[in-house]
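Fig. S4 source data, part A: sequence.
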Amino acid sequence: MTHAAHLWLFFALAFGIIVLPGLDMAFVLGSTLTGGRSKGFAALAGIIAGGICHVAMTALGISMLLKLVPGAFNALLLAGALYIAWIGLSLLRSDAAFGLPPGNDPGPARIAFRQGMFTSLLNPKAYLFMLAIFPQFLRPEYGPTWLQALVLWTIIALNQLCVYGGVALMADRARAWLQNKPAAAMVATRCVGVVLMAAAMITGFEGWRGR
């Protein structure tokens, strides 16, 4: 297999995993519905930045530590699932659409960026990908490991930008429609809360079972 074919195979695998609904996608959706397009893309930028940390940890061998110490992986897995579940529960218990009283500022984009990065770093699906698939595409014959890791991260980031960016754009259109329909917005708030909690439970369960 040529290097180009090798990279295209990685692209296809990364796209197939990223396009599946999970914690990152649910967080981008919730952030956009809460604060609009700018907050949604800030959350997306945080998730992409978290991907840099995943790649760096893999290159440094920290992922191997998680593989050798299952307890550390399970603790990380539960922390990520509980974090997203907590956001979902907050929306379910909120008395206002998307947890914001009318006219309130949803908060600066930098908060969404930090939360997106935190969500990415606690996403068990990302660690499963980095443990099971990513190392297989680092080949000595293709050059320095750090350069290969950078190229693979770029492929991951492009997939995330396309998939999650599309989610943010669609959610922003939905938000604009819901702003003049309080009752429908409240129902959507509850639905997003359920989606976040379901994503947390399913991802956590599947990741735990995969270990």
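Fig. S4 source data, part B ends here. The chain has a mean pLDDT of 76.
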